[in-house]
């Protein structure tokens, strides 16, 4: 597994460089955004995924908080969306919080097993559910095919920090899942530093041996998970912890056997952060918010004994002067903007800004400014990025400005 590990001093130096590249102004070298597929509207977008059909045609799947997933072919002259899945009667999307249908990912062997996985919330008791469905070619997919992989109860009375990211790692085919700290303010339930709970963590599950139906759990613990067979009562599913609300995860294949895991973690009052996640890493919440120390009165009781060297620090962060709710994205591999290739593109829901982080230089640069409520990014079969606006539209970086002239530092 490839990642950034380092001391407190090295982390501060790297973040200082990253912030230096994240100017607050909107200079003339910024790209714009343009709407694509203007005839389609998906209010409450939470995720965008692509997958070819049996004939090899690319399809885009757009997830909505309301519990619906629409699917269409972006290559069609006038694309129309069909209903791929509708769990609106099963998820508690109507609350004022962060519940609903939040994530979608396809099994690495989808072409043969037709499995896909969704991340959604339910009420009474409030919980996060990771479920597998089987694409039976009906539209929408039959709800009777649901097999609950994992169900995690959340504290009563809160409606936030349920995360919603999931992705399969290309190196081993394991499913990674992001869970928030349980909600409230400043991790009031002290979950993120507590490895005896699944909350506030990145999980790694082996779903290759799941049954064809039935109740949770429907997974096994991958060999090599950091707390596999531990004697301390730590949850064996945990791959990394110390997360607040990790909103979006993507996994970059580096070569045949290695990968890099990108996670964007939403901050409290000060900082938004991008993390490269490594096995057994503690990402600091709620002892740290990014590289900042959380006020002592707000910290978990576990924080004082940990010390600075116990934490993995973000590779990039920005203050709330630039945005207040980070949305993670993907490493760009498209052809429209050659100088972005190999850089991680991410944005902010509150400000509409879009940045790219260059792992080679450890610098972030603002590349677009928009009025969008950016909830997610997606990648098409051609490697080009889509941007999801919570209002319902799909967008992309526009080519009418000279983004291609922005050279890496």
What structural keywords apply?
4-stranded antiparallel β-sheet, disordered C terminus, 409 residues, mainly beta, 35% strand, Neuraminidase, 26 strands, 4% helix
Structural notes for this entry:
The chain is mainly beta and 409 residues long. The protein has one domain (8-405): TolB, C-terminal domain (Neuraminidase). The chain is 4% helix and 35% strand. The protein has two helices and 26 strands. The chain has helices at 8-20, 110-113, and strands spanning 33-36, 45-52, 58-64, 68-72, 82-86, 101-106, 115-122, 127-134, 147-153, 166-168, 175-179, 201-205, 238-241, 246-253, 259-265, 271-277, 288-289, 292-293, 316-319, 326-331, 344-348, 354-358, 363-368, 374-379, 385-389, 394-397. The strands form seven sheets. The chain has a four-stranded antiparallel β-sheet, with no helix packed on it. It has a four-stranded antiparallel β-sheet with strand order 2-3-4-5, with no helix packed on it. Strands 6-7-8-9 form a four-stranded antiparallel β-sheet, with no helix packed on it. Strand 2 (45-52) and strand 3 (58-64) form a beta hairpin. The relative contact order is 0.16. Mean pLDDT is 89; it is low at 1-28 and 404-409.
